[in-house]
Amino acid sequence: MIRNFKISALAILFIVVNYTAMAQIQYKLDSKSSTMLVKGTSTIHDWEMKVEEVGGSITLGEELNLDKLTGGNLSIHVNSIKSDQNLMNKKAYEALKEKDHPLIKVKILRVEPDQGKVQLELTIAGKTGNVNEDFQLANQSNGTIQVKGELDVKMSDYGVKPPVALMGTIKTGDDVKIAYDLIYHK
Could you give the number of structural domains in the chain? Predict the structure, then answer.
């Protein structure tokens, strides 16, 4: 009798776990259709760097039901953040400690899709912190999902010393803005 109960309980648990796993629908980032820019200031001019290599996914509890967004993540390859100037790229990679921490990681902790708010866990240069941001989420006519917004980051919060050049005469500001327009597909 106890053995039959254990088998029945195990079977029910297996069904519940499988149903829950099936209900989660993952959408992968389409890196070719997505854009991400890092924007900042310096003592001379504003600057911008394009993120060329980013991967990730989001998870919905129901297909194309944005109110059921349950999680997601992004991985940004530090050495794919590029400007038109090689010296600027080199200084950025050094500041972001690219050799020890080649990825910037973003994880969704909590989301309120109806209010356009998200809490993220952000890991930069090996240091992790939480940020709350506004974002836009939309279904596209071709069955993809668009996530759009701007993330404000203070580099020093992550142990990143803003880069300097020409013996300190050119200094970058501590605040950067990450503008993103991400497209996800099933």
Answer: 1
Could you give the percent of the chain with pLDDT greater than 70?
87
CA distances from 10 to 17, 19, 33 (A): 10, 14, 44
User: What's the pTM value of the predicted model, to 2 decimals?
Assistant: 0.82
pLDDT in tens, 56-90: 999 999 887 888 888 999 999 999 999 999 999 99
Annotate 33-72 with DSSP letters as a single string: T-EEEEEE-BSS--EEEEE--EEEEEEESSTT-GGGEEEE
Closest by CA to 66, choosing from 5, 174, 143, is 143
In eight-state DSSP terms, residue 160 is P
Let me know if residue 115 belongs to a domain. yes
Residue 9 CB coordination number (10 Å): 10
pLDDT score, position 148: 95
| 142 touches 114 (CB < 8 A) | no
Decide: residue 66, CB within 10 A, 0-12 exposed, 13-18 middle, 19+ buried. Answer: middle
Query: What CATH number does residue 68 fall under?
Result: 2.40.128.110
